[in-house]
Amino acid sequence: MIIKCKKLNWLVIKFKITFFFIFIVGGLFAQTNYYWIGGGGNWNDIFHWSLTIGGTTSGAVPAYTDNVFFDVFSGFHTTSNKRVNVNIII
């Protein structure tokens, strides 16, 4: 009986450790999808980023861990100004 109890305790501990790494630590590196909207502009302009395709502004710009998408709803359907300016501080 004591051996089975020790095995059960070890399994509970392993489950807790696995849960911690998958859900807690993994959440630190979560990625958000951002969609460019409104045609040409500056990368750091919060009004050019949406959390949904063709949606409204998200009020934020993507971080280095996020995914960014340019699609048919990005506002580049005309032949003029298809530029996105990216300013990088090194």
Characterize this entry briefly.
With 90 residues, the chain is of the alpha/beta class. It is built from 1 helix and 5 strands; from the N terminus they run αβββββ.
Give a written overview of the molecule.
This protein is of the alpha/beta class and 90 residues long. It folds into two domains: 1-30; 31-90, no CATH class. The protein has one helix and five strands; from the N terminus they run αβββββ. It has one helix at residues 2-25, and strands at residues 33-36, 41-42, 49-50, 67-69, 84-85. The strands form two sheets. It has a three-stranded mixed beta sheet, with no helix packed on it. It has a two-stranded parallel sheet with strand order 2-5. The chain is elongated. The model has no long low-confidence stretch (mean pLDDT 79).
> What strand order characterises the main sheet?
3-1-4
- Taking all Cα atoms into account, the compactness measure Rg is 22 Å
Low-confidence stretches are: none
Oligomer: single chain
Structural class category: alpha/beta
Total number of beta strands: 5
Basic shape:
elongated
Please tell me the total number of domains. 2
Fraction of residues in β-strands: 5-15%
Helix and strand pattern: HEEEEE
Most strands sheet? 3 strands, mixed
Distance between the termini: 63 Å
Helix content: 25-40%
